[in-house]
Write the structure tokens for this entry.
Amino acid sequence: MALAVITGASSGIGREFVKQLHEKGEADEFWFISRNAEKLEAVRDSLGVRAEIIAADLTSAEGIEKVRAALEEKKPRIKYLINASGFGKFGNFSLLSENDVCGMIDLNVKALVLITHMCIPYMERGGHVIEMGSGSCFVPMPDFNIYASSKAFVLHYTKALKYELIPYGISATCFCPGWVKTEFFGTAFSVKGARVPKKMKPMLLPEDVVARCIKAAKKGKVMCVTNWYTKVQHVLFKILPDCILTKIWLGMQTDNTKEG
Ligand SMILES: NC(=O)c1ccc[n+]([C@@H]2O[C@H](COP(=O)([O-])OP(=O)(O)OC[C@H]3O[C@@H](n4cnc5c(N)ncnc54)[C@H](OP(=O)(O)O)[C@@H]3O)[C@@H](O)[C@H]2O)c1
């Protein structure tokens, strides 16, 4: 039995991890965690996998406690932990509601760290932790500030976690794709008056980026930057000062506002 615990399994990148881990024989049992039980059940049924459904809002203490209770009750042996729950919103910091600002930090950072902290004692040697970063984690991004900053935390934290998990024989990988075609953008574009990127090409496909990430995790790589475009960005991020990178990003934004 190989168990994969996946947050955000109800759609997009998380769902694609379920599909590929199942098809590649990397996991034959799953725990699906996110808010929408019906969507999680639909993923389970459409992919024909064995899955425990844990409907939990991971921005809430109750949601986190629900996962903790399931771990303590079932004492699973986990091979893959994938923290794919997350959201982002474009818009000047002052346009975002407190709920959105704190929600991004609570989900993208706090829940990811807590779920990892809770799951590590149940992980088997040879296991893999995959933490969802983003191509946005390398540079300060006005109008996507809290999201990019939350992902910068994830990258920094995963780079250190890799070393902390060596004694346990578990790998840690931060997954940093560019723009991926998922439901992410429905929420991301929902702020009225927000400046948004003029174009988001190349838009990657979940199946391509997830396949690369699984390979990277199995090789024990600490970071998976998925395509040439994000790789070039990553090199530029290393050699150019932040202020220039931020100006390039600002130049890629619309001047006009997007109606929510
Ligand atoms: N798409 C991109 O361009 C892109 C690029 C780089 C990184 N990422 C990252 O990839 C991850 C997955 O995003 P995606 O593109 O697959 O978007 P998505 O299709 O919108 O998936 C987001 C997932 O997060 C779950 N979620 C949202 N709020 C939650 C909450 N409060 N508690 C628990 N689960 C919650 C959603 O499930 P429920 O609605 O059922 O709760 C859903 O399964 C995110 O961390 C995102 O930041 C995305």
